[in-house]
Design a protein that fits this description.
The chain has 23 helices and two strands. With 447 residues, it is mainly α. It has one domain: Growth Hormone, Chain: A (Up-down Bundle), CATH 1.20.1250.20. Strands 1-2 form a two-stranded antiparallel ribbon. The two termini are 18 Å apart.
Length: 447
């Protein structure tokens, strides 16, 4: 009887379309948002290294860019979910685009003030908007079509997120890092002490370079806001029910072990992703003496690998269980990060770049596993998974703090602080592998 039920589910999954023709245009519009927040994420990662050089601050202080950026996700996720429940997915998207554009345009006065704290506030406002976008768009994509193909549909939509990320990296490399004054940190230290006016002029030039792309991005987001304002998006099942049922919904979510474990796994995944991508530049610079623009090139290679692997892994989900594939890729990530830590030189950098192939499947698959079967609870449940992006808020500063320390002796070898810092993403992949295993062996009946 159980075998018959499984075959019926498989047959229904094959019959159901991933993207029915009736929702195609709406799907395209919402999928564009995945690229839009991917662009924001990856034009921002290299700014950690840029602000360190421009403002002559420590690794830990410069990593506060990520603390502010991903802090917006953490703080705004629950309010966003409640707002979406009270109104609609479309209204949530529009408010998200408004905050996104406002944060980008706030870079203009931040640069004029030459104040790092003002940039941090701009990043925070921007990602309050991104939190609304992700809290709206991810469950909307899941609910937009047949439930049997919801994870495939989300994986496909998420495949366009790294395309936006790659564009953000290209802009960061060619229009920010390449145009920032070439004076290195040591030279800037000398200028600050001997020619403060010249040092201030270089700082202002470099901050103006940073402002430009964010200002243009803000204008693009405003255009997207206008398009969504006039567009007609389909309603999903249960969207007309405006009653919050907050207490009972939270009770059901907290009693759902698969969901809670998914939130934890997502926090560690996002932490691993942001750490690996943010600090490729520092790894290339500190371990191999590469300039930041060349280090960013390796970041772009990692993103190309990520994009390619995302499409491949989405295809493989037709033949492998999501939990099993997730566990296998987490084990691969663990092995590659081990290489980054213990192998010196270019092989270590290649391992760090290669780990993107293993990360490609993780966010949407963890997301889909955690939300599957939650029904209308998915709106608030999605907020918990977006709050989990707070892993990208806390872990990069922790890794940066390790980078600021001295080298570590293991007895049989000495680890530079840069390589030793990657023990944090190593731990993250262990947590993800455990979740993948439990999804397959413990929660398999519910997925």
């Amino acid at each position: 009887m159980e075998e018959m039920n499984i075959s019926n589910v498989d047959a229904a999954k094959k019959k159901a379309k991933v993207i029915p023709s009736s929702i195609l245009m709406s799907f395209v519009m919402v999928t564009f948002l995945f690229s839009l927040w991917g662009f924001a994420n990856d034009i921002t990662n290299p700014m950690v290294a840029a602000f360190k050089n421009i403002l002559l601050i420590s690794n830990f202080e410069s990593a506060l860019v990520q603390f502010a950026f991903y802090g917006g996700y953490c703080v705004m996720a629950i309010p966003a979910a409640l707002f979406i429940k009270r109104f609609s997915y479309k209204t949530g998207i529009m408010l998200g685009l408004t905050l996104y554009a406002a944060g980008c345009l706030m870079f203009i006065p931040s640069g004029w003030m030459m104040a790092f704290w003002a940039f941090l506030i701009s990043y925070f406002v921007m990602t309050c908007g991104l939190s609304f976008l992700e809290t709206s768009s991810n469950p909307y994509i899941l609910a937009m079509g047949p439930e049997e193909t919801s994870t495939q549909r989300l994986n496909f939509a998420q495949s366009f997120n790294p395309i936006g990320s790659l564009m953000g990296m290209l802009v960061a490399k060619n229009f920010i890092l390449a145009k920032i004054d070439a004076t290195n940190e040591a030279g800037r230290q000398v200028l600050r002490n001997t020619a403060p006016e010249k040092f201030a002029a270089i700082q202002q030039h470099d901050l103006d370079v940073i402002i430009g792309p964010y200002m243009i991005l803000g204008l693009v987001v405003l255009v997207a806001l206008i398009i969504f304002a006039i567009a007609r998006l389909p309603k999903t099942a249960g969207e007309d029910d405006k009653t919050l049922h907050l207490g009972s919904t939270l009770k059901r979510l907290f009693s759902n072990k698969k969901y809670i474990e998914g939130v934890v796994a997502q926090a560690f995944y996002v932490g691993a992703q942001i750490m690996c991508w943010t600090f490729i530049i520092q790894y290339a610079e500190n371990e191999l003496g590469m300039p930041k623009t060349k280090g960013q090139m390796y970041n772009m290679v990692a993103m190309i690998i990520f994009v390619s692997s995302r499409f491949i892994c989405t295809f493989l989900l037709k033949y492998f269980s999501p939990g099993g594939l997730l566990m296998s890729l987490a084990i691969g990530g663990f092995g590659l990060i081990s290489g980054t830590i213990f192998i010196k030189g270019m092989p270590g950098l290649y391992c760090l770049v290669g780990v993107s192939a293993c990360m490609s499947l993780m966010f949407p698959t963890i997301y889909g596993i955690a939300l599957k079967g939650l029904g209308d609870d998915a709106k608030l449940g999605a907020a918990g998974l977006i709050m989990a992006i707070g892993g990208g808020c806390l872990m990069p500063p922790m890794q940066a703090w390790i980078m600021d320390q001295n080298a570590i002796s293991l007895g049989f070898m000495e680890l530079s602080s840069t390589r030793a810092s990657f023990v944090l993403p190593l731990i993250c992949f262990v947590v993800i592998a455990v979740f993948g295993f439990r999804t397959s062996k413990v929660h398999g009946h519910s997925y």
